[in-house]
Structure to design on (240 residues):
């Protein structure tokens, strides 16, 4: 009979993942009502899975030449009631909680469907080219999307498989996370580019990602997200 030692780094990685899963389950239990929440960010279940594995959310995977944003940029919609009056570090006025929640929810919806398509097509979520493919396919059929579908068929996917993935993606609604006021201790936050129509947001560069300590809560936007987080909560014995 042979005995094998599990490498210490693998044990530590496993322990960290269990710790992060429990934190995410607790964040789901808290929701978005935490008094330290200063804004909302929309994302996907795939990003939440990344968070549970790595302890941080990934920032933007590519540079944005149009607005000058670098790789690793992280965006969120600030709460107008928090950033109002003379004490606000910004001269800009921001929208109401209801309005920014709608913006974050809309962003979560698009991103979650895009990420679902990328994952199901066995592409890399961290690859800018694959992100672009996901965005084009999420937007619906176009000449460019049809060309992409033809490429996947040449690589062995069937049209039925691809259309099934695209149809299933519509069931994804995403999640909205709350951002803790502590981000101002760790990052320099800036207002969105003035020429961006959706520029009523704050952004910061997170070279190593948005750490889980800066998240106040998680709110699912759809049934699939709710079921996923409820099951996670049961396994983690949180809120029971």
């Amino acid at each position: 009979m042979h005995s094998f030692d599990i490498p210490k780094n693998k044990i530590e990685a496993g322990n960290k993942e269990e710790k992060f899963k429990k934190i995410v389950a607790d964040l789901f239990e808290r929701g978005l009502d935490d008094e330290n929440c200063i804004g909302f960010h929309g994302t996907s279940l795939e990003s939440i899975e990344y968070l549970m594995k790595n302890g941080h959310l990934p920032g933007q995977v590519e540079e944005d030449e149009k607005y000058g944003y670098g790789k690793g940029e992280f965006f969120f919609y600030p709460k107008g009631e928090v950033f109002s009056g003379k004490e606000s570090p910004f001269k800009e006025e921001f929208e109401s909680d209801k309005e920014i929640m709608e913006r974050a929810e809309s962003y979560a919806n698009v991103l979650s469907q895009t990420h679902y398509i990328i994952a199901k097509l066995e592409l890399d979520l961290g690859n800018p080219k694959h992100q672009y493919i996901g965005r084009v396919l999420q937007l619906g059929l176009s000449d460019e999307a049809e060309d992409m579908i033809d490429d996947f068929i040449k690589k062995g996917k069937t049209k039925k498989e691809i259309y099934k993935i695209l149809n299933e993606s519509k069931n994804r609604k995403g999640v909205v996370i709350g951002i803790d006021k502590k981000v101002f201790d760790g990052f320099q936050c800036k207002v969105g580019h003035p020429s961006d129509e959706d520029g009523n947001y704050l952004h910061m560069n997170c070279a190593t990602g948005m750490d889980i300590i800066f998240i106040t809560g998680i709110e699912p936007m759809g049934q699939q997200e709710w079921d996923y987080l409820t099951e996670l909560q049961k396994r983690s014995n949180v809120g029971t």
Summary: The chain is about 45% helix and 15% strand.
